[in-house]
Write a structure and sequence with these properties.
heterodimer; A: mainly alpha; Four Helix Bundle (Hemerythrin (Met), subunit A); 8 helices; elongated; B: mainly alpha; 10 helices
Chain lengths: 262, 221
């Protein structure tokens, strides 16, 4: 974030809405996004190479454990993506933040894609280790519900002729669905699940070997940067689309105005 | 509060006058439940084992049916605008609508669930837990349903969207409701599952009408 200038010191109320200006957003994001794509891509490729070829295999699961370097970051991002969707929805409901509306609409498909990949890789991992593609334990079910919430949000925001109405409806739904996030997080502790409990936490030492932890964290950072880059690019496109639409609308209304005069 | 009762009694009177529409959800519940013995076979062991799940799923689907018209008719003829101007805050209107949905759809389902469970050869020990679970769960269905109905109000395909939004949200209700009945049928205590349902109801009772009120305000803007 830029250092606040003296003009903004005089008007502190504007600081929050500085990023609500779509032009400002396009200028800023145009500079940031290429960096996000390149750094994210390089970090992802590097960490995945490390994880897939050089990290040790598991003493029980063998090479199968390498699915983790894709599965775990995507699972984190599926939840984190929904959280960012909820934050956007919150600011769209409270402050009527116009960019938050667009960002919420664009996070939906990206988050749904990440959730779907998380479920698919989990299924591929489950077959050799559990002997089943799918089990209905609490973790898998709650992530599946997360996917359904994403899909419901995607369908809902696009179901209205008036986009503003869609933004508000989607925001309410996204905030209600937040209840699912703690359920996903704690599902492996509250219920006796086949899915393992968390190996990495904010408090306490991770119960995963450091030789596996570093490539995992690396790929998590890489995929996070890519998630951000995709979302920002989609939001840029949405801003452009909105501008084109309003230009076309202005043109159409001026043309119909001329006809009615003549 | 007086307006709340007025809105509620108006809704109840409306559904009394359209008796056939009101009974449709109940009939749907009984017909779908009776399809399972025909599809799976009438073996009492299998049927009795899955009876709680059948009753719960059918009740869930039947409760969805009237949601489309819950606010839809009021929006079309303009009475929703008048309701919003009545002085009752939007969440009050939503609460009254949820209560009318429960009284008109939830209570009949609750009454029919016992006989349907017996027809499905459910073990008798599980039936009180099933009904208690439904007693706590059906208001939850009404609350979540009202909220989703207010959100999709004015959407192009609101009727199709509604189940997509409601069903993922009510999966916890289904899970704990069905497992309470399952536990009782298997000789365990249904207590923990019922307590969790009651906790969910206590949380949804104030929060769902608030969300539904926000949806209503967006719809009439």
């Amino acid at each position: 974030m830029a250092t606040p200038s003296s003009a903004e010191h005089r008007r502190p109320a504007r600081t929050l809405h500085r990023f609500a200006n779509p032009g400002q957003f396009l200028r800023l994001s145009g500079k940031i996004t290429p960096w996000l794509f390149w750094i994210g891509g390089l970090v992802t490729v590097g960490s995945l190479t490390w994880g897939l070829f050089f990290a040790p295999d598991d003493w029980q699961q063998g090479d199968t454990v390498r699915i983790m370097y894709v599965h775990v970051p995507f699972a984190w991002l599926a939840s984190a993506g929904y959280f960012s969707l909820a934050v956007c929805s919150f600011s769209s409901l409270i402050w009527r933040h116009p960019l938050a509306d667009l960002a919420a609409v664009e996070i939906g498909p990206v988050g749904a894609g990440f959730t779907a990949v998380c479920l698919a890789t989990g299924s591929l991992w489950g077959k050799p280790t559990w002997g089943a593609w799918w089990v209905w334990d609490a973790r898998l079910t709650s992530v599946f519900v997360l996917l359904l919430l994403y899909l419901g949000h995607i369908a809902l925001v696009r179901a209205f002729d008036d986009p503003t109405r869609g933004y508000r409806a989607g925001a309410i739904l996204a905030l209600v669905g937040v209840i699912n996030l703690p359920i996903i997080k704690f599902s492996v502790e509250w219920w006796n699940t086949l899915h393992q409990p968390a190996s990495i936490g904010l408090t306490g030492a991770p119960t995963i070997a450091a030789s596996m932890l570093w490539p995992l964290l690396g790929s998590a950072i890489g995929f996070t940067l890519l998630f951000a880059a995709i979302t920002i690019t989609r939001t840029q496109a949405a801003v452009m689309e909105q501008r084109i639409r309003s230009l076309l609308m202005a043109k159409a209304s001026s043309m119909s105005g001329e006809e009615s005069v003549s | 509060m007086r307006i709340f009762w007025a809105v509620l009694s108006r809704d109840l009177r409306l559904s009394m006058r359209h008796g056939a529409d009101t009974l449709a959800a109940l009939l749907f519940f009984m017909v779908t439940a009776s399809l399972f013995p025909l599809a799976i076979g009438p073996a009492p062991d299998t049927l009795g084992r899955i009876a709680p799940g059948i009753v719960w799923v059918c009740a869930l689907l039947a409760a969805l049916l009237p949601l489309d018209r819950l606010f839809g008719a009021d929006l079309e003829d303009g009475s929703l605008d008048l309701l919003m101007l009545s002085g009752l805050p939007p969440f009050g209107i939503a609460a009254a609508k949820a209560m009318s949905h429960w009284l008109v759809t939830g209570v009949p389902l609750l009454l029919a669930a016992g006989p349907v469970a017996i027809m499905l050869r459910m073990p008798e020990d599980g039936i009180p837990a099933l009904l208690l679970g439904l007693l706590l769960g059906s208001p939850l269905l009404s609350l979540f349903g009202t909220m989703a109905a207010s959100i999709v109000l004015g959407a192009r395909r609101g009727g199709v969207l509604l189940p997509l939004l409601v069903l993922p949200l009510v999966t916890p209700v289904l899970i704990f409701g069905a497992s309470a009945a399952d536990a009782a049928a298997g000789g365990f205590s249904p207590h923990p599952h019922l307590m969790l349902l009651a906790a969910m109801l206590a949380a949804a009772l104030p929060l769902c009408p608030l969300a539904a009120g926000a949806g209503l305000r967006g719809a009439v803007e």
